[in-house]
Amino acid sequence: MLNEEQQMLKDMASEWVRDRVPVTALRSLYGHGGGGVEGSIGHDAAAWAEMAQMGWCGIVVPEKQGGSDFGYRSMGLVLEELGRTLAASPLLSSGLVAASALRLGGTDEQKARWLPGIADGSVIGTLAMDEGAHHAPEKIRLTAEASGSGWKLNGVKRPVQDGMVAQFAIVAARTGDGVTLFLVEADAPGLTREPLDQVDARVPAAWSFADVAVEPEAVLGQVDKGAELLDAIRDRAAVGIAAEMLGSATQAFETTLDYLKTRVQFGAVIGSFQALQHRAAELFGELQLARSAVEEALTAIDEDSPALPGLASLAKAIAGETVHQISSQMVQLHGGIGMTHEHDAGLYLKRARVAEQCYGSTAWHRERWARLNGY
């Protein structure tokens, strides 16, 4: 159940998303080759500014640093509405992930320096965790070696979500016998960024570190003991993108259901065929399970529940399976038109396949949930 303020936020987000960033806004980010338009930043900067003005960037930022501290359940409502129209923005990577990292592990100075900018949208942060095609935080190879009073970082991070527009990243590095997180500014000497083309027209980046020097004040949390902090950040990221996937799956289902109710074939509305009714009923059931898992995980963050790790992986895995199934069925049930770029179905499928891999794949989170529950 939503309280009055959350319901108002959801209604406002729903109306703004439909009017300002419909699916056609995403289509404009695509080039003729199927990926993003050359030179694109992967989102509409004007729309991002409007999101900031509405206060969405500061939903999980404490009031002391200029945010509203409205909670993760509230942030999930906004992300779900953005997912409905596949609206591209750095809200997840910056307003949720980077803000969470600073909340959980930042010093007072780091919070004072970066959180107000995240809250008003003037600063974009992100997380640099993955180093290849497969999510494997236990195999981090980027190194940070002590140098004078600070550190020098060497290695590559890819993909870094919204990495071409971010002003800083929380970078996970191998130090001694453990992992340490560093706050690294994007313009640091020795750091280069390369845009990566992606099927959903968003623009992640590869960040290459060549003797990138950082001061000891750049450490987030404790040296060699960053793995637990990284897990906590990733849990919140996984739940956030699960909320977005829930929105995408919901809209894909509703669009498909409308088509089944109106498309006439062999002299009958195709939705009258029992086989298709069974398919729709199965998808509806899966959607309700995903909603329950996502909402429970968002609440667990707000309540600081010890069950969060398991609930986060459960939400990411179920939302990933659901959006995979519904986006595939959306293409198939629309027939030939669903295969065209002009129809929305293919765009939902492409975004679903990317989101399924972000912050840990469906299989990775399913395996983690099993381990956490003793299987």
UniProtKB/TrEMBL annotation:
| The enzyme's E.C. designation | 1.-.-.-
Q: Per the entry, which co-factors are needed?
A: FAD
One protein family per Pfam: Acyl-CoA_dh_N
The entry's family comment says: Belongs to the acyl-CoA dehydrogenase family.
Q: Where is the Acyl-CoA dehydrogenase/oxidase C-terminal domain?
A: 237-371
Please name the GO terms that the record assigns under molecular function.
oxidoreductase activity
The cross-references to CDD domains, in alphabetical order and at most eight, read: ACAD
Record-annotated Acyl-CoA dehydrogenase/oxidase N-terminal domain positions? 3-121
Q: Name the UniProt key words of this record, in alphabetical order.
A: FAD, Flavoprotein, Oxidoreductase
Instruction: Pinpoint the Acyl-CoA oxidase/dehydrogenase middle domain residues.
Output: 143-198
The stretch of residues making up the signal peptide is none
What is the name of the protein in this document? Acyl-CoA dehydrogenase family protein
